[in-house]
Amino acid sequence: MGWYHSHPFDVGPHSNAFLSATDVSTQLLWQISEDAAGNPWLALVVDPLRGVAKGKPEIGAFRCYPTNYTPPKGLAPDGVSWDDERARNARWGESCISYHQLVRRRACGLVAADGRRVCRAGQQTTLNSFAPR
Question: How do residues 81-118 score in pLDDT, each as one tens digit?
Fold first, then answer.
């Protein structure tokens, strides 16, 4: 389950599929509420202008970290470490330490950026599958 919205900003060097501070607040409220009910909640962000320019959809899937978790310093939502915090924030937004990206790999389903399996195609996810290690 989840929600989606678009970031129709100008086409630049990076995708605009990221979570803003408002998006993080919205996602966290729903995530806490729905996860407790057994419905892992996910945020999808579409960058429509970049998608049109590239000729293929530009979509990001995200989950927020639990509020008591602090990711490693310099880590971006895609699991890549950045030495330049300003460059990382320009790419992923000022709230990038609050969420992580889910990526699709082959036909195995959604996988977190660090390689943890979130779900297999056709199977229900579990709440623990989204929790950081």
Answer: 999 999 999 999 999 999 999 976 544 455 555 555 55
In degrees and rounded to multiples of 5, residue 24 shows phi and psi of -60, -45
Hey, CA dihedral for 104, 82, 66, 117, is it positive or negative? positive
What single string gives the DSSP state of each residue in 70-109? -PPTTB-TTS-B-S-HHHHHHHH-TTGGGEEEEEE-TTS-
Q: Is 46 helix (H, G, I), strand (E, B) or coil?
A: strand
Q: How far apart are CA 28 and CA 32, in angstroms?
A: 6
pTM higher than 0.85: no
User: Which tens digit of pLDDT belongs to each residue from 58-79?
Assistant: 899 999 999 899 999 999 999 9
What is the SS3 assignment for 7? coil
* CA atoms 8, 13, 18, 21: torsion sign: negative
